[in-house]
Amino acid sequence: MGSVLEALRLVFDPTVLGVMVAAGLFGLFVGAVPGLTATMATALLVPVTFLMAPVPAVACMVTAAAMAIFAGDIPGALLRMPGTPASAAYCDEAYAMTRHGQAERVLGAGLVFSVIGGLFGTAVLVTTAPVLADVALQFSSFEYFWLVLLGLTCAVFIAPGRPLKGMVSLLIGLLIATVGFENPAAHPRFTFGSEALMSGLQLTPVMIGMFAVSEVIRYAVSPEGPLPVWRQGMGQIFRGQGTLLRQHPLQVLRGSMLGTAIGALPGAGADIAAWISYGISKRFSRTPEKFGTGHVEGVIEAGAANNSALAAGWIPALVFGIPGDSITAIVIGVLYMKGLNPGPTLFIDNPQNIYAVFMVFFLANLLLLPLGWIAIKMAKNVLRVPRNVLMPIILLFCVVGSFAINNSVFDVGVMLVFGLLAFGMEANRFPIAPTILGLVLGGMLEQNFVTSMIKADGNVGAFFGRPIAAALGVATILVWLSPMIVRAVRRRAVTKRSEC
Amino acid sequence: MRISDTLTGWLLLLFGGAVAAYAWTFPPAPGQSIGPGGFPLLIGGGLTIAGALLVRAGLKPHDATPFAEVEGLRQPRLALRGALVIGALLFYALVVETAGFFITAFLFLGGLFLAFGVRLRWIPLLAASVTLGLHVAFYSLLRVPLPWGWLEAFAW
């Protein structure tokens, strides 16, 4: 009880509440500008949170990410330009509704069902995380090794695109994580005599480079047409949303549950949740023929799914220290910097901080209603912000933010190198998320691998010696073998068909 | 810039091999079965295998991607804009300690606004107000010691 009261005191502090409102407005703005993503909003906030205590820092990032995911719906619905990848799944549907004169209805639905999805995901997080943490306390290095490997494996195989390219992306992240002397043998690796590389590459400039600088470079080299303009004002946003909820309770529940399940999987985030949810909504709809013509059903389900996925991404992040997607990977990096290492012991050593994080999630989702309303009302002005002015400002923000971590120009160079790397990778269809997950989890993977090898005296069989470790190990290997299994099943089906 | 899978594969094959070869030179950890080179060796090996698989995939007859394609060759203006972004970052990193944040950031923004087609008469005002705004946010509020350089005499 004392911890809960302490958490209430931590959260309902005027500074924390002020930070949440400011971060919320920032997140709404970034999410609403096409081409700027929720991940970018979170990465840009890292240097700002540098001097904050852990709770306001987490509050800042959680609020900004939740707002940005919703705000991506605004340009998607009004201009057919999804603000964030998580809104792309139902962008055409929402735009079709706008053309039928239902802009308020579709944006209102996006807002209300994002809040419901977010609150659902948070409720699951609050109820399951402490239980899982109790289980995780029994884990040894063997279970952690498999758990991290399973998380990274999912990031490679669940991510869109070819698993081989995801694999390369992951290996690059793992390789970057080996730089420096912070390894079990304390031997300087890949430092090439540079003192700046001794303690490894700083996470912040790497993330800012990969998620923000790469976007600016992409903007610079892409042909720019005239920006479509939305001139109309907005009417009643919340009118009719109660009726929609009464008409589609199953869709809301299904979207929230699916989003939560996908969000909790390492490597899969809000965008994948929205795509799958929209597809399922169409598949099980009584009126699938209406999809694509301006039908709100899919928007409700996928809108609930993307925000619930965001909250659920925190389950593996807080309990095991394994991020569910790029956004949680960034926040985990910040938690480590603040000495608040995620994992089951966090629930015992700092329960007030965990409760505070839970409260922040509820607050952030509730805050989405008034701030989202303001964002929709102001859409006309936000969408008019010229990107040729915005991009240089973002780039300078990136530079100053990277410099701020160590007050070192070296980090600005690191940011540039990783910005170019991410730009080149995306241009050639290599996903970025596995690199970031590999970078964040590389140290943990190696540490647990080496510890396990020492414990087992080099006997690989010991990795399957404990029941949970064995189950996790088998699951990991099955995911690895899944492409071959799928191929074999398909080949057999084709052979059977040709025999018939 | 787009590179074919075949070329990417060859590059990864060489890079992975170099990583593995370098990791091989790390000393063993006394009393342990796996030393500091073990993990990088696995990563290097993994990159080499992934590179070989990409080469194999790229050699299939249906893959008509050219070896490497630079979009900028078709639209030099856009390539120049991309180069300017990189140049602006290098300029900032090389000059900021000497000239200080105010001068460097003003020139950095001014140059990029110009390259991105912002109207000339707005550029000085925009660049100056953004530079001042970021200085207040990071120097005064977040206590980041942004260098003053040539304006050291006016430092606050």
Fill in the keyword field for this structure.
heterodimer; A: mainly alpha; 2 domains; 73% helix; B: mainly alpha; two-stranded antiparallel ribbon; 2 strands
Give a brief description.
Chain A has 500 residues and is an all-alpha fold. Chain A is 73% helix and 0% strand. Chain A has 2 domains: 2-465, no CATH class; 469-500.
Ordered list of secondary-structure elements with their pairings:
The complex is a heterodimer of chains A (500) and B (156).
Chain A: H1 2-11, H2 14-32, H3 38-49, H4 54-71, H5 73-79, H6 91-99, H7 103-136, H8 141-158, H9 163-177, H10 203-221, H11 241-247, H12 249-264, H13 270-284, H14 296-312, H15 314-320, H16 326-337, H17 345-349, H18 351-377, H19 379-382, H20 387-406, H21 409-427, H22 433-455, H23 467-499
Chain B: E1 2-3, H1 5-24, H2 38-58, E2 68-69, H3 76-99, H4 101-115, H5 123-141
Describe it for me?
The complex is a heterodimer of chains A (500) and B (156). With 500 residues, chain A is an all-alpha fold. Chain A is built from 23 helices and no strands. In chain A, helix 2 packs parallel to helix 4 (54-71) and helix 3 runs parallel beside helix 20. The longest helix of chain A has 34 residues, at 103-136. The radius of gyration of chain A is 23 Å and the shape is globular. Chain B is mainly alpha-helical and 156 residues long. The two termini of chain B are 45 Å apart. Chain B is built from 5 helices and 2 strands; from the N terminus they run E-H-H-E-H-H-H. Helices cover 63% and strands 3% of the residues of chain B. The model of chain B has no long low-confidence stretch (mean pLDDT 86). In chain B, helix 3 (76-99) runs antiparallel to helix 4 and helix 4 (101-115) crosses helix 5. Chain B has helices spanning 5-24, 38-58, 76-99, 101-115, 123-141; strands spanning 2-3, 68-69. A two-stranded antiparallel sheet of chain B has the order 1-2. Chain B is flat, with a radius of gyration of 24 Å. At the A-B interface, helix 9, helix 10, helix 20, helix 21 and helix 22 of A face strand 1, helix 1, helix 2, helix 3 and helix 4 of B.
